[in-house]
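The aim of this short unit is practical: by the end, you should be able to scan a pair of folded records and say something sensible about each. We start with the first protein, listed as its amino acid sequence and then its structure tokens.
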Amino acid sequence: MPKNRLEAFTDAVIAIIMTILVLELHEPHSDTFQALMTLAPRFLIYIISFFTLGIYWNNHHHLFQAVHKVNGRVLWVNSFFIFFLSLFPFVTSWISEYSNSLVPEITYGVVILGANLTYYVLARTLVASEEDEKASIKELFGNYRKSYLSIGLNVVGLILGVLVAPIAVLLVNVVILIAWLIPSRKIEAYYR
């Protein structure tokens, strides 16, 4: 089946998630800079979540540019990917309310781990399902080092969050975010 509906649906869902994410930011309780500064941790966590979602959208977009058709398995894996992304407003709100608390931090890390795992499975499913275009898709997305690194760092962040300090989960996910901000040279060259 054509990929257009899946791409349009995913784009719409991510846009809605990002909109809901900003709705969780509430105005200060007074009209002073001091009141605004008390919201700084919430803004920081919002920025981290917003750009994490943006990176997922960007990578999803690149992934599907190289694909012409999808099958039922791709639809289901994409649905699980969207499921984890849909939890971002909840975990972002919770972690911003209780920053450096174990359960919210671990939950945030598990949601990101779930999104990373399902994105990885989605890429592998697309590589496996595209017979006629397999060479170009496999060439572009067949190297999963960045995904392996992200998933491994997610697990390390969760362990550090439990054993050292809950904030380690968020800090490790910022490192992952920075790693994904650097675009793949192969993909950039392919789409020129």
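Turning to the second protein, read its sequence before its tokens, just as you did above.
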Amino acid sequence: MSSQDIPEENLPSAQDHAHGSVALADTDNPFADPGLPPHEHRVQDIDERAAKRSERTVALMFTLSMLGTIGFIVAYVAIPVDKSIFVWPIGHTNALNFTLGLTLGVSLFLIGAGAVHWARTLMSDVEVVDERHPIAATPEVKAKVMADFRLGAQESALGRRKLIRNTMFGALALFPLSGVVLLGGLGPAPGTKLRHTLWSKGKLLVNMNTNEPLRPEDVTVGSLTFVKPEGLEEHDHEFLTEIAKAAVMIIRLQPGDIKDKQELAWSHDGIVAYSKVCTHVGCPISLYEQQTHHALCPCHQSTFDLADGARVIFGPAGHALPQLRIGVNSEGYLEALSDFDEPVGPSFWERG
């Protein structure tokens, strides 16, 4: 059947086309818009006792969320970092990490579950059809949006159901405290630890390879040797922390090749000692060019002139390598005469 055979009143209008839907008057048309099914009321809509039960359930979830957050904070403070527990089927695991993850997950889950249960059982579930409209809203549409918002706020019963409102606000207000407490995981403030190392007056320079103290005659001209302070052993609990600051390289130059007066004064018979920690991002310097007296950091190619105060001659490093003042003790061993006079490693904002 062609469109000429359809009565004019049953033909789709231009307005129908504009709305993207065409519904013919023919009731036998299988493509006709069926419309919305009849609304089915929930038990909470017709039974206030059921609504009260849902309200108490939502409030319970929000309250348990608050308890979960409090449990997170208590666990963070009370459980030792190195404590281990057995959890089936995981096996042995860190008690602190497991408890923090469990309490934080439960707290966040209950906030979401409470909000979902609230929406499904107490907020309005009446289906509303709204026609498409231009992006630029008219004053009438804006007024309708505000009216719908006010209606939604009213139907949410946020003002009337104070138990839900107060417990929800409590859960949402308390939950961020978990993040605040986690800031403590960054560790204690460094204090003056960045400004001092294990080096001090009288500490012998110990060869990192042989673990023996060094004499001047053990260091040949042009050689590079890595040393550590006397008393620092690899099996020490704080070895990695301390060697990261106290690692030193010693190089023997001809005294006439040393350009910097302080470097010459702080050396012994051409033997100079500098921090091994690059002043860019803290990589260990390990490459030395004998002919030019240049030390190279392998990470980002910062280059230091060890014959001229270890100043930076290339690369992103921000300042020269700190020099360790050395001498020889009464037994003929190389020793430190003090700690570094400036912090080793990369710059930091409090550095003077």
